[in-house]
Amino acid sequence: MAPAIPQTFSTFNIPPTRRHVETIDFLLARPSLELLPEALRPAARGFLSYLATLPTSAPHECPACASRSIALATPAGTHGSRRDGYYCRDCNKRFNILSGTPLRLLRSEEKWKPWMSYRYQGFSQELIAAFLGISNKASMTWSRAFMAAMADYDTQLHRWWEDHQSTHISELTDEAERALEACVATLTELAVLTDRHCPYRGSSSTQVLTSRRATEYQCHGCERRYNNLTETPLSHIQHMELWPEYLRLLVVGYHDTEIGERLGLSKSLTNLWRQRFLEFMQARWPLLVHWTLWQWSRRRVSVPSGPQT
Ligand SMILES: [Zn+2]
Ligand SMILES: [Zn+2]
């Protein structure tokens, strides 16, 4: 009998929404910044603390003329103002720490860092809005403002991040690429393995019955028959020769319809395969599942939801 598909991935056809509690728990367990290349993580971390500390820090220069001859004019609280107001002795302009930055019109600054942190974890704007109790519209505005602030903060981080927010397929990080290679290698081994122990009681005394695809065995202990895929998420999944290509397409973010067209799989098969392969990857290569879910939600906007011809 095929193992039951865990709830985690069996219930969503589009990226997780608030209904998909278990999938969201899985995403929340993702180590922060894991999706980013290692080389960019310090900058990403720095950007988080920039968002956290900027609103309460003091300016060094006038945003209009860059003069350093500035002075505090109106402390926060004066006439109900939320921030310290400064003036420039050279150009006489008044400003605060956010003047001239992409963040100047945003409110709820205590939520800026959590917003960006969830974003790094791969959550959609809508989900983050729900987590933080802000409107979808605010979440979209923040997204644009933070992208612009990131561009000012670190060009490389911004370039990578922007590329991975766009709707085209973008490259895996080296880390994800290595995980994908290891996963494909394991799939390949499954095809050629000829000494699998009994998955029911673990008896090592077995007899190989056939050596076709997914070698079949009989256990001397419990006498049950099994093959290389029995009691794994991939039991009864056919077309082994397509698995490596399927896996790559899934992880980099192709949707069921696109994959179905490329590999000649029906809609019900691509649906089943997605659930089973996510489950297969989850145990040993959770990063690949994180990538898949992230890329899926990122590319959702470009993919028509209805049937395509
Ligand atoms: Zn000035
Ligand atoms: Zn057995």
Give the total of beta strands. 6
Q: Classify the beta-strand content into a percent band.
A: 5-15%
Q: Helical percent range?
A: 40-55%
The main sheet orders its strands as: 1-2-3
Largest sheet geometry: 3 strands, antiparallel
| Span of the ends, CA to CA | 35 Å
Report mean pLDDT, rounded to a whole number. 88
Helices and strands, with pairings:
Elements: H1 7-10, H2 21-28, H3 41-53, E1 70-74, E2 85-88, E3 94-95, H4 112-120, H5 125-132, H6 136-153, H7 155-163, H8 174-192, E4 206-210, E5 216-219, E6 225-227, H9 243-252, H10 256-263, H11 267-284, H12 286-299
Antiparallel strand pairs: 1-2, 2-3, 4-5, 5-6
The structure holds zinc ion (ZN) (2 copies).
Protein name: IS1 family transposase
What can you tell me about this protein's structure?
- This is IS1 family transposase.
- It comes from Salinicola socius.
- This protein is mainly α.
- The chain folds into 4 domains: 18-57 and 104-165; 61-96; 171-193 and 231-302, no CATH class; 194-227, no CATH class.
- It contains 12 helices and 6 strands.
- It has helices at residues 7-10, 21-28, 41-53, 112-120, 125-132, 136-153, 155-163, 174-192, 243-252, 256-263, 267-284, 286-299, and strands at residues 70-74, 85-88, 94-95, 206-210, 216-219, 225-227.
- A 3-stranded antiparallel β-sheet has the order 1-2-3, with no helix packed on it. Strands 4-5-6 form a 3-stranded antiparallel β-sheet, with no helix packed on it.
- A hairpin with a 5-residue loop joins strand 2 and strand 3.
- Helix 3 (41-53) runs antiparallel to helix 4, helix 4 crosses helix 5 and helix 10 (256-263) packs across helix 11.
- Residues 302-309 have low confidence and may be disordered.
- The structure holds zinc ion (2 copies).
- One zinc ion is lined by residues 62, 64-65, 67, 88, 90-91, 93.
